[in-house]
Amino acid sequence: FQPEGLEFENTRMALRAMDNPMRWLLMLPIFFLFRRYKLDWRVIAIGLSIGVFAAVSVAVYEVYFLGITRASGTMNHVITFGELMVAVDLLLWVLMIFAWNNNNKLLATILLIASLVAFYGSLLSVTRGAWLVYIFMIFSFIIYTLKRSILNKNYLFSKPVLVRVFLGLIVFFLVAQTEQYKVIQDRTAHTITEVSQGKFENASGVRLATYRTALKTALHFPFGVGTDNFRTGAKA
Hints:
The protein is an all-alpha fold and 236 residues long. It has one domain. The chain contains nine helices and no strands. The chain has helices at residues 11-36, 41-64, 78-101, 105-125, 133-148, 159-176, 179-196, 207-220, 230-234. α2 packs antiparallel against α3, α2 runs parallel beside α4 and α4 (105-125) runs parallel beside α6. The chain is globular. It starts with 10 loop residues before the first helix and ends with a helix. InterPro entries: O-antigen_ligase-rel_domated, WaaL-like.
């Protein structure tokens, strides 16, 4: 199971293969910038909030004015947008708790609203796979609580956490009253039906088949298949 090496079919594939490592190289100046100049966490939090408000505004326009079933926001793909909104939501959630614990109630309120908006943006994108992250986040909170103090429930059931969970349920309930929820319901029902019938190739947009191929590739090539050489890994 030796990979064939770097073989480019055309110039476009060659440039795309070079683009992936170049993105990591371009992050080096940012890395050294953060090492030299320490940014205030409040600046990062406010910047994330502004970005969320702008991106979700575009998503709302796409769904309710353009009639698009799945919003892509400011990204080039709906899945990318949904995953980004979930990731930013988790970051804002942590920053919200940190601001609350530092008696910065105003900033905590702003981050709470931004977190809810990010969650709403993920619902508009109907990126269901990204929502699994919330399950791991709940487990993380439980482990953190057990580690700090099993008797002190304030670590898990603090006011910002309870308010965020309650308002998040309200946002989901409100979305359930719209046509957007029908899109979520139909896609979820289709995935369950395909999986129950053993049609893994078509279930969830061939994602299950992709995951299975990725697992086989990782078993045969534990150190990777090389740049732009995924076809070889798929044949393993």
